[in-house]
Structure formats: C-alpha cells, structure tokens
Amino acid sequence: MTINRKTKIKIKDLPNYDRPREKMIDRGPCALANDELMAVLLGSGSKGRDVFSVSRDIARKAEEDFSGLTIEKLITINGIGRAKACQIVAAIEFSKRFLIKKGVRIINDIDVLPLVQELRFKKQECLMTFTLDGGNYLIRKRTVFVGTLDQTFIHPREIFADAICDRAASLVCVHNHTSIDAYPSEEDIKVTNRLLDVGKMLGISLLDHIIVTQKESFSFKNKGLLNR
Fold this sequence. Notes:
The protein is 37% helix and 15% strand. The chain is α+β, with helices and mostly antiparallel strands. The protein folds into two domains: 11-99; 109-219, 3-Layer(aba) Sandwich (Cytidine Deaminase, domain 2). A five-stranded mixed beta sheet has the order 2-1-3-4-5, with helices on one face. The termini are far apart. 29% of the residues are buried. The model is unreliable at 1-6 (pLDDT under 50).
C-alpha cells in the first residue's frame, strides 16, 4: 500500500505492514522514513491533523535546521503543543548524550553546534570545552565556567587541566553571548589568544573557539583568527 501523505490518514487505518511501529518491529528503525520515525515518537496526531501531517512538518524543520529544533520552534507547528514539543526535544537530547560517548568526530563548527544547543538560551555566559583525541574524536564535553568571559577570571589552567588529564590532542571552546550578536568582543579575542599561546606550549592545539547566540554563531577558525 502506498501512503499518500497529503491525505488525512490514521495509523489504525493502515495495514499492519505499513504502520510505522509495526514496520519498525519487523524491519528495524532504518527502514522508516523521517516522518515515520517521528510518527512513532508522537503516537497520534491532533484534532484536525493526522499524525503523518504533523510528523512531516517536524521532519521538514529538522532537515532545514536540526540544530535549531527547539521547543519554541516546534510549538509553531500546527498540532504540536508544549507537551509534545518537550517530548521531542527530550528524545533528541537523550540520544545526543549517548552519541557523544560513541565516536563523535569534530572537524569544524558544524559538528559542534548540535551539541551546544542548551547554551543558546542561557541567561549567563557559559564556557564549554570539548577535548579531542588525535583523530578529532570527542573525549569529553564539559562546562568549565559560568559568568562573564573575562581574562581576569578565565585562566588557561582551568581549561587545559582537564585536557591534560584526558591526554587530549586538541580542544574546542564554546561560549554563549546573551545578546543577539555573536561577534567576539575584545575580551573574547584576548582570551582566545591566551588559549592559543598556552595550547602551543602544552602541545594541545586550540581547534576552534565558537560563540553562539539564540540565532547566530561565530567561529574563530572559519574567520582565520587562529592563524598566529
């Protein structure tokens, strides 16, 4: 049976082999399309919208901007309330935490941004570090500082101590701006330069320093600001 996603259809109206849950049980999750996976997670649609219509809208938003799939963005979809939005975001976060332990490779800012979504909506500036092995695989993600990023308070030893313990080959730093502007301040640049210098002495390179806001991000590496 071919499912026409443009027509309203209930899961119970489908034959067993076309029902997402039964399909997953029989053939595994890889056999399901993105909207079918989301249909399994949602379980049902809403008044006036079947589960496939809602799932298709969520899948489309995820394909456009997975890193921006927040509760606020999800509840703009017709058929998604706060409860279901929280359910989806919780499932994403749960998966992300386990994926971090299973061979996440970080080459550039695109690899990092999905792992720091919680920073975008913090009311205070926070600094996170990602320690990496020689193959750029993630060893550990940490929050090392909460407060204004100022070289007076941020000392490289706080950042590199963990990297040394992890026997890391490189390091990525990420912090948030509570404003809408992700462009680095003079203090951000000073802190980054200190980390570069200390990293060179220790043999642990600073792969990138990334700044995020609710809607923007800035990569020192992409802008060529780590070439000293």
